[in-house]
Design brief:
mainly alpha
Amino acid sequence: MQNFKNLKVYEEAFRLSKDIFEFMEDKQMSRRAKEQLLASASSICANLAEMGAIDSRKAQNQKLVTCIGEANETEYWLDLCNSLKIIPQREHLNFMSCLVRIRSMLCKLKKSIERGDDDD
């Protein structure tokens, strides 16, 4: 695996994680819900970083499954925060647009690893 920081999906996921952290900084909401949202968003990047140290395609594939799961969890928390009017519709749509793009990139990377492509 190449350096995880060179992966476009890592760059996108890092940016989304940072944007969510900055946006949520002063929001009044359940501490638990805020922690869950921030944890799931940052876990996408963290798991990609961990994947960079793994040689086994099977283990890399599993890390990507975990990343996709974290993206799904992030979507849930974003939807909940939007429905509770913690995240306004415009910001929700922006976050979701990025998240959908990231999830698509994760799925493509997963397929690439499954095929054994060298240009991940």
